[in-house]
Amino acid sequence: MIENPPIEIPDLSLYEVLKKTAGEFPENIAYQYLGHSVTYRRFIAQVDDLSIRFRKMGICEGDRMIICLPNCPQALVAFYALNRIGAISVMVHPLSSSNEIEYFVRDSGAKMAITFPRFLPNFPKIGSVEGFQTIIVTSPVDMMPKFKAKIMQLVSKEARMPGGNLGFGMIRWTKMMKDNTDAVVKDIPQVSTDAPASILYTGGTTGKNKGAVHTSRSFNTTSLGMIELSGVRGEGNKMLTEMPMFHGFGLCTCVHLPVCLGLTCILVPTFTLDSLCKIIVKEKVNFMAGVPTLYEKMIDNKYLANADLSFMKGIFCGGDSISVEAKARVDQFLLAHGSTTKIRVGFGCTECLTATVLTPKTEERPGSVGIPIPGYKYMIVDPETGKELPDGEDGEICMLGDSIMQCYYGHQAETDAVIKVHEDGNKWLHTGDLGCIIDGFIYFKNRIKRIIITSGYNVYPNQIEELLSHHQAVESSCVIGIPDPNRGTKVVAVVVLKKGVQESKETTESISQYVKANIAAYAKPRKYVFVDSLPKTKLGKIDYRSLEAQYSKQAEDQSSSSNM
Question: How far is it, in rounded angstroms, from Cα 27 to Cα 25?
Fold first, then answer.
């Protein structure tokens, strides 16, 4: 077992942390969005105003509201405004399918939602889900100055709102922000640090989506522990907030951590590699967090080829494993371009919010994901017996700390399967990941649970296999991940068709469209392979590892031949 002694964590809600920062650094820039800057003084005023408007619309303490938006001011302000009144934000990926969004609405018991017009078709109609009353519809430029918003609307269809009546139960953001709030009770309840603050959806140890419930204490403990170990400091520095806010990594590391220090969040709603690299150079970004594939692509980008990156002070990597070789290439690139920082690898999961392990600034071990941040303990246990294993032996990675989720919302049995009381009387989170501890450093080896990470997003094969099993043409299937130069890993579905069904373009299209309609865009298989039968293990289970090896080898051979 290894642990890092705790540091003092203030007994404050998310909103109270923001208010404290705004009081200390009122003129610091809180966030930048599409070239528009907002100070902490203005940011806290926006949060206060929106919280009262939410109250007028009927949002009360304990109510759930879905935030289904990319990184934009509305998502940022709504997150803290809901916390101010004791309501709970439910963070949802905007590219989720209609079936998934309906599930999130039902599962969380959400009362309202906020989203962009283009995501509206995937929401259930008001009245079709009990308790779901209102959808607030906003455009990407609703919180920008009018003259800038009009320019954006002229050049981008995405920035325009549809005309006419939106439909029953829907209200425009602009109308909501004009409504008179004089009659609204302004007294704000004292929000406990340990009250549910946000629900983040994850597949957990199975492919079934479940909402991990996190508190203000979760965010504060992780953010301040990360600050202590990472050395991130304020002093007018900028954090690139390109990691999505619907993910714990983006919401905690790229939003609340900067808020704790009075840093500037540079909100990036969508991006190409070129546009992101331009932002890094133009804004002289000091800190950023990202997935391995992003960093591996960045070092080959033309906009960074001759750039002076001496302004970069901290580069953090999570969401997937980065190879020792890839890390070395990125570190060498940074050094050659004037930066003294190196990639700092982290480890965590949605169930503990975000990374609770980080590579120390003064020491790193090749292949290690680092040491626990202050206030956290880690141990390795035998996956079968739950007994702690000695240093150097591989087993399941378990962690203990204040950012462990309270529960999977509404799923007690699944909660009990991953949060277990040990002999010391503490509730430990079983991550479902395989690793070991050597000389106080944690090494991640593999995943006990089946999971594919593509472009930093978690994809759960059995979720897609379950979908495929309901298609009239499919007898059985196995979903695997194979190496891909663009996504890191590509999702591939290996399918056995039912007797009498012929492999054809029409069959492939039918299966593809069915899956596409029922799952998030990032999770859909990029390739379908049809076979007569699937390999089995000695225990009679589908041998997905042999399929991964087979098709990964084929992809590697094809890549080698194309480069000759």
Answer: 6
Write the CB contacts of 201 (distance below 8 Å, at least 6 apart in sequence): 90, 91, 92, 93, 104, 209, 210, 211, 212, 350
Angle, alpha carbons 99-498-481 (nearest 5°): 55
The CATH 3.40.50.980 domain(s) of the chain lie at 14-24+37-191
Kindly write down the DSSP assignment for every residue of 218-245, as one continuous string.
HHHHHHHHHHHHH----TT-EEEE-S-T
Helices of type H across 442-543? 461-469, 505-518
CA distance 72 to 36: 11
3-class SS letters over 342-393:
CEEEEEECHHHCCEEEECCCCCCCCCCCEEECCCEEEEEECCCCCCECCCCC
Instruction: Determine the 3-state secondary structure of 465 from DSSP.
Output: helix
Parts of the chain belonging to CATH 3.30.300.30: 452-562
Here the tokens at position 454 are 């593509």
CB-based contact 65:79 (threshold 8 Å): no
Do the beta carbons of residue 435 and residue 394 sit within 8 Å? yes
Using alpha carbons, select from 57, 65, 103, 102 the residue that is nearest to residue 82.
65
State the chain's mean pLDDT as an integer. Answer: 92
Domain 14-24+37-191: assigned CATH number? 3.40.50.980
pLDDT single digits (tens) 329-339: 999 999 999 99
| Cβ contacts of 163 within 8 Å, gap of 6 or more | none
Mean pLDDT over residues 229-255, rounded?
A: 93
State the CB neighbour count (10 A cutoff) for residue 379.
19
* pLDDT confidence bin for 487, thresholds 50/70/90: confident
Q: How many other CB atoms are there within 10 angstroms of residue 533's CB atom?
A: 8
- How far apart (Å, rounded) are the C-alpha atoms in residues 351 and 537? 31
**What is the 3-class SS of 247-260, one letter each residue?**
CHHHHHHHHHHHHH
Which tens digits make up the pLDDT trace of 503-541? 999 999 999 999 999 888 888 999 999 999 998 865 566
Instruction: Identify the architecture of domain 452-562 in CATH.
Output: 2-Layer Sandwich (3.30)
* φ, ψ (nearest 5 deg) of residue 344: -105, 110
What pLDDT was estimated at residue 205? 44
Cα–Cα dist 377/395, whole Å: 16
Greatest extent of the chain over all pairs of C-alpha atoms, in Å: 73
Q: Is there a contact between 375 and 222 (Cβ–Cβ < 8 Å)?
A: no
Residue type, 233: R
DSSP state of 423: T
**Burial of 129 per CB tally in 10 Å (0-12, 13-18, 19+):** middle
DSSP class of residue 103 equals: H
Tokens of 105: 């609405």
Q: In what order do the strands lie in the sheet with 112-115?
A: 170-172, 134-137, 112-115, 64-68, 88-91, 196-202, 210-215
Annotate 145-171 with DSSP letters as a single string: -HHHHHHHHHH-GGGPPPPS---TTEE
